[in-house]
Specification:
heterodimer, A: alpha+beta, Ubiquitin-like (UB roll), Fumarate Reductase Iron-sulfur Protein, Chain B, domain 2, 2 domains, two-stranded antiparallel ribbon, 9 helices, elongated, B: alpha+beta, Flavocytochrome C3, Chain A, domain 1, Methane Monooxygenase Hydroxylase, Chain G, domain 1, five-stranded parallel β-sheet, 19 strands, about 35% helix, globular, binds flavin-adenine dinucleotide, binds iron/sulfur cluster, binds FE2/S2 (inorganic) cluster, oxidoreductase (chain A)
């Protein structure tokens, strides 16, 4: 196959970027999208041109490190991660436009690499159960109905890639944040900190500069792991309930 | 130097309990006066950093990805073992211990393995408490499955994403400590050297991968949790960034490297399709429970999966079932892998390249119905189709062995300390618990055992012997010298401006390792490989082309530094494989086989851990032996006939 690539090149966070066009003559349909870029990069190095920087690690669709906005869609035309996308999805002679994730909260680091540490900070705000190592009950002492465990697992499958943010016209991180809030709200282990967690994670999400949710559903449509919009509904409920009985509100009410 | 395992005396089942009582403790109020560096945030590193932070130590944690959640552990699919015996099917701590020792072909330390089996039960409890959504039965109890041919069902799992869920559990515990200010996290940071002061590990040198800045960090102890080195083969199931650099730098600073030649090759991976291939994808071992492995009896070059049905039943060779009637398709990983290779070497391999065998589900689908097979393996079938374009419900899969795990690693004593005082190695980065071959679902167990339940005790024992608050400055000459060397190395790499790309040279190394130090090894082949690697090293340092600068994100430079270390490690693996003229576990020396071609151990000569000491650039490494003493188990020759 032969393809034309229009790739976003940007030296660093402070410089202005631009598209650059590359003719790629050596594409096989068995290649993954990232392997196609590897081949391009090796050819660039041989020609003395700097290769294109992009994030990736597992190349199995699970680490969430790969990104790329391909022909106007995060992770390209299929509902998989970019590393699992294969060139047989494209037509010989096609032009493919490759950009980084675009969102205020995900600044570009270089070329196609962006900074997604805002996601980590949302998790640090409350995406955990406060238990120390040791001193926990036997695993079977906390029975969990299969249905509940399965539902929690559906939410827990989020890989933190950020496609939901990239897909959203408001660059909202609701799908990502709600996945963790849902997982822990569903499980008995998460009950003790349920309200506090919802409040803190939502507050951090807002502080990072992610946009609001206007229910377009673009995130769900592009999420490679099938994280469902019902999680956002659940998060909204959790958040609403939490603010009603917020620790802060109570503290004020008590006059303390 | 005599290697001391420091395994406690006394009955096997009491060693760890006694040891925990005997270790020195750091007074709770003093813990905050000690700094601990944790390199790596996979299962081993994240669990260690979180647990030490909870205890009150000041932890600095490092990883090269943009988030600790992305460590290679995330990719583990199958499950994690634990001796819970929830199924009442005869499992016990002793049985898990015994299976691990036997599976490791009697090349692991008894005391360590028993401890691993003991704490396995605590791991499951810990993960459940964190909210890890393990699979459940309808009654709400935890579900188990049998894995890798084990006789009991002791494997816990979360769909096909067990590693992901366990890592996210450890990551959540880590996040809590980051929020509490007890752990400071450095992402996109690559450790490039360990710094010794007065013979003790007192810090590291790292490169900030975004700015390129070289920085030092000091501490009272350094924990390397940096994973395995399977990428020395270029193609493996490991994540692209997995590397040996941290361990190798430590090795050059005095940490002995244990059993480097022990590599695990996984039989069921998606075959290579061409030179563009960048990594290999594992298809879970569980597929061998229902899939039948075969090749045509007579060579059919280029046979495609969609034409497999044209081969009549009588013309197929179900070679595993034929050669190993009692275990059939469920023989251990090394046996299944080697036999696939033999079929392809005979010219009976299938597919475009001839380096593949069929894994056929037609009989299983006929027997159980498509729905049952889909329920069990649906996600794997989809993944296979996504990658290859073939539909495994309609035609057999094609599979071929691939490098998967490295049992070798930094030598550590019972406390997980390397031969450098204050320098520890945890998880896949150490050599410890799996002997010459690892059982399925035991790597996750080991990583978490080391991080949650072993290191919090053993590092305390070491720190208690140091003066509290005795902090040191990174302005010391030892740090400056290490930084200088790192900077010089980078400058040198950038100045070569040769003709070959880093990937190209890495691929060359991979070909050498796979051909001569892979599934099957011979004296002549290994000697040849040694020469080829030495030549490759020269070529690398004179002909590699690394573009870009040092003070920016430079992924080519990152790769180049890793490949330079892989080349040196490759040579040591070959030395180790040459030295070990027996076959054991994943290490198969053709010269040491039974008349019918099965592996032949030589217990009287090789019942030891080979621990290699670095002596200088291009100098031969010195072999030290830790004799393995079996007090409890009586070694027998494995047989799967
Ligand atoms: C596809 C696949 C499936 C598997 N399935 C299973 C399974 O089902 N069950 C099982 O038990 N095992 C399985 N394994 C094995 C298991 O996943 C690994 O052995 C284990 O996760 C290793 O964990 P770790 O914490 O030691 O290292 P890793 O998870 O590899 O983490 C290494 C860490 O070190 C960091 N690091 C490395 N080098 C540096 C450096 N120089 N500077 C800074 N940071 C560095 C990385 O950033 C990372 O955080 C599987 C492996 C693969 C490849
Ligand atoms: S919700 Fe989906 S798209 Fe968003 S980060 Fe998680 S996996 Fe990626
Ligand atoms: S590289 Fe890991 S999800 Fe794509």
């Amino acid at each position: 196959m032969k393809i034309t690539l229009k790739i976003w090149r940007q030296k660093n966070n402070t410089s202005k970027g631009a598209f650059k066009v590359y003719q790629h003559e050596h594409v096989s349909e068995d290649m993954s999208f990232l392997e196609m870029l590897d081949v391009l990069n090796n050819e660039l190095v041989v020609k003395g041109e700097e290769p294109v920087a992009f994030d990736h690690d597992c190349r199995e669709g699970i680490c969430g490190m790969c990104s790329l906005y391909i022909n106007g869609r995060p992770h390209g035309p299929q509902q998989t991660t970019t590393c699992q996308l294969h060139m047989r999805t494209f037509k010989d002679g096609e032009t493919i436009v490759v950009e980084p994730w675009r969102a205020k909260a995900f600044p570009v680091v270089k070329d196609l690499v962006v900074d997604r540490t805002a996601f980590d900070r949302i998790q640090q705000a409350g995406g955990y159960v406060s238990v120390n190592t040791g001193g926990v009950p036997d695993g079977n002492a906390i029975p969990i109905p299969k249905k509940v465990a399965d539902e929690a697992m559906d939410a827990a499958q989020c890989i933190g890639c950020g496609a939901c943010v990239a897909a959203c016209k408001n660059a909202s991180a609701m799908l990502f944040t709600s996945a963790k809030i849902s997982q822990l709200a569903l499980l008995p282990q998460g009950q003790a900190e349920r309200k506090e967690r919802a409040e803190k994670m939502v507050a951090q999400m807002d502080a990072e500069g992610f946009g609001a949710c206007t229910n377009t559903g673009a995130c769900e449509a592009e999420c490679p792991k099938g994280i469902s919009l019902t999680n956002i509904a659940r998060m909204n409920r959790e958040y609403f309930m939490a603010t009603l009985t917020s620790y802060e509100v109570q503290a004020k009410g008590d006059g303390a | 130097m005599k290697l001391e395992s420091k395994a406690p005396q006394g009955p096997l089942g009491e060693k760890w309990t006694k040891h925990k009582f005997n270790v020195k403790l750091v007074n709770p109020a003093n813990k905050r006066k000690y700094d601990v560096i944790v390199v790596g945030t996979g299962l081993a590193g994240a669990s260690a950093a979180a647990s030490l932070g909870e205890l009150g130590y000041n932890v600095k944690a490092f990883c090269f990805q943009d988030s600790p959640r992305r460590a290679h552990s995330i990719a583990a699919q199958g499950g994690i073992n634990a001796a819970k015996n929830y199924q009442n099917d005869g499992d016990s701590v002793y049985r898990l211990f015994y299976d691990t020792i036997k599976g490791g072909d009697y090349r692991a330390r008894e005391a360590n393995v028993h401890r691993l089996a003991e704490v396995s039960v605590n791991i499951i409890d810990q993960c459940v408490a964190q909210g890890v959504p393990f699979a459940r039965e309808y009654g709400g109890t935890l579900a188990n499955r049998s894995f890798g041919g084990a006789q009991v069902s002791r494997t816990f799992y979360a769909r096909g994403q067990t590693g992901q869920q366990l890592l996210l559990g450890a990551y959540s515990a880590l996040n809590r400590q980051i929020a509490n200010g007890k752990v400071k996290m450095y992402t996109r940071s690559e450790m490039l050297d360990v710094v010794l002061v007065d013979g003790k590990a007192r810090g590291i040198v790292v490169r900030n991968l975004i700015t390129g800045k070289i920085e030092s960090h000091s501490a009272h102890a350094v924990l390397l949790c940096t994973g395995g080195y399977g990428n020395v083969f270029f193609l493996s199931t490991n994540a692209k960034g997995s590397n040996v650099t941290a361990a190798w730098r430590a090795h050059k600073k005095g940490a002995f490297f244990g059993n480097p030649c022990y590599t695990q090759i996984h039989p069921t991976c998606i075959p290579v399709t061409g030179d563009h291939q960048s990594k290999l994808t594992l298809m879970s071992e569980s597929l061998r429970n229902d899939g039948r492995v075969w090749v045509p009896k007579v060579a059919k070059p280029g046979l495609r999966a969609k034409d497999a049905a044209s081969i009549a039943e009588d013309d197929r060779d179900y070679f595993l079932e034929r050669k190993y009637p009692s275990f059939g398709n469920l023989v251990p990983r090394d046996v299944a892998s080697r036999n696939a290779k033999y079929m392809c070497d005979e010219g009976r391999g299938v597919g475009q390249t001839g380096r593949a065998v069929f894994l056929d589900f037609a009989d299983a689908i006929k027997r159980d119905g498509r729905n049952v097979i889909e329920a069990k393996y649906g996600n794997l079938f989809d993944m296979y189709k996504q990658i290859t374009g073939d539909n495994p419900y309609e035609m057999p899969m094609m599979i071929y062995p691939a490098v998967h795990y490295t049992m070798g690693g930094l030598w550590v004593d019972y406390n997980l300390m390397t031969t450098v005082p204050g320098l520890y190695a945890l998880g896949e980065a150490n050599f410890s618990d799996h002997g010459a071959n690892r059982l399925g679902a035991s790597a996750l167990m080991q990583g978490l055992a080391d991080g949650y339940f072993v290191i919090p005790y053993t590092v305390g024992d070491y720190l208690a012997g140091m003066k509290a608050g005795e902090k040191i400055s990174t302005d010391l000459p030892e740090f400056k010298e290490a930084e200088k060397q790192v900077n010089e190395r980078i400058a040198r790499l950038l100045s070569i401006k040769g003709k070959k790309t880093v990937d190209h040279l890495h691929r060359d190394l991979g070909h050498i390792m796979w051909e001569y130090c892979g599934m099957s090894r011979t004296d002549a082949g290994l000697r040849k490989a040694k020469g080829l690697i030495q030549d490759l090293k020269k070529e690398f340092w004179s002909n590699v082309n690394v573009l870009g600068g040092s003070s920016e994100l430079n992924q080519e430079l990152e790769k180049a530094m890793r490949v330079a270390d892989f080349i040196e490690l490759g040579e040591l693996m070959v030395d180790d494989a040459l030295n070990r003229t027996e076959s054991c576990g994943g290490h198969f020396r053709e010269e040491s086989s039974t008349p019918d071609g099965e592996a032949q151990r030589k217990d009287d000569e090789f019942m030891y851990v080979a621990a290699w000491q670095y002596t200088g650039e291009d100098q031969p490494e010195v072999l030290h032996k830790e004799e393995l003493i079996y007090e409890t188990v009586k070694p027998t020759q494995r047989s799967y006939k």
